[in-house]
TrEMBL record:
UniProt protein name: 2-polyprenyl-6-methoxyphenol hydroxylase
Keyword Lipid biosynthesis among UniProt keywords: no
Domain of life: Bacteria
SUPFAM superfamilies: FAD/NAD(P)-binding domain
Cofactor(s) for this UniProt protein: FAD
Keywords on record: FAD, Flavoprotein
Amino acid sequence: METDVVIAGAGPVGLLLAAELRLHGVGVVVLERLARPDERSRAQALHGRTIPTLDLRGLLGRFLAEQRKLNGGGGDSHRKRPLPKAHFAGITGLAAPPHEGALPPVVFVPQAVTARLLADRARELGAEIRYGAEVTDFTQYESGVTVHFGWSEVRALFLVGCDGSRSVVREHAGIAFEGTAATLTTLAGEVTLGDAAAAPSGWRRTPRGCTVISPHPAGGPSRVVAIDFAGPAAHPGEPVTLAELRSLVEHVHDREIPMTGLTGGQRYGDAARQATAYRHGRVLLAGDAAHVHYPVGGQGLNVGLQDAVNLGWKLAAEVRGHAPDGLLDTYQAERHPVAAAVLRLTRAQVALLNPDERLDPVRELVAELIGFAVVGRHLADQVSAANVAYPPLDRHAHPLTGRFAPDLVLVTADGERRLAEFLHGGRGVLVLLGGHRPDPAAGQHVDVVTADCPERTDLGVLLVRPDGYVAFAAGAAESSGGLETALRQWFGTSETRQESGAHHG
């Protein structure tokens, strides 16, 4: 069997990457060791930068529809359901989660639902997903890689490991996974609370540990998380029992908290590790295979999905043969620092959650600092990834360059359209405003849109990458002389080089 790209792991990150590659006609086979989709859900919501990213691909509506089903249906449930208070280590008071225009700041869907929706999308676009197909080894050579799974093998141009924190791909590539080992044990799952109204909801820290209890708004299964700081699990792979979870929750609160019907039980620690390299030849890493940390603040899945969207269009350009030199290397250059910052942020929160009473003054000081708007905004931006900006190629670049594109409403010959609509196909977009005319060669690998934008009359040119970040911008009265250079550096030239051995879908 031959294809362009093999993805190890059918979690949300691998599935989104598969869909991104298929938008560009790249052949994709996803190999998943589990016999069927994983029904466990460590992550319970999507937020921050992931929301406008789903909007860029026209997928946000699917997630909102699932959220309505989970909440009992009816209306814009994201407007009716109270948002959880933004927090840092369980300390509330952060600025409200930032969002783009009319988009919701949070979408409440469990990780298993996210995976299902992304699998549907990947299949719609022609990706092949094989369950019960565990990647055991691979052989890399100059022109490609042969991936072994079970008694079979598949030859491809590239292999991407999205196979989790214990990544076989990372291990066999010889890429180090540096960081710190687990120091605590967390038990989590969905239960039916005996008295949901009396349960200690939200983040609660006592001298014996912490819990996070989220009663279901419609009386369904409630999410319960309990943190034991006595040390890492002796047998991390053992199933979690209802008695074990209930006992830990009651120990933390020193009182009886009735619960029944445990489903989706999980046990995990706070190991914080990052791959030293995201690429080794024709092998790349994304998601938990590249970085793992304690899931406080809901950042893990969101960071991994951003990896996929950053990597997808770059890897597709490499496969299709029009990638400029060094484009694929910008994946690590841009995403490695982002994950490193997340690891630092989550480690700090784990330290502050420790029930040791000697940390109480530190928590009180942090709570006081969060009360200052600039501090609260800074921490909220870090948790939501609103602060992510990639270094521009030109140090004299426009302030928008390297940042996520604003949610503009463009007035075109066909009427008003949001900028996000032009990115549904996964191509870059060159927006020419206020009478600017296109370069004849500009549309080789990007779509050109001529429009007006009453809300941003200061802008003249905006070149937006497929992942939504601005590659080039110029003011209405500025020269756009650097546009040609930006097009060449990010999207290549009109000449296309064919990868040897490519098998396009």
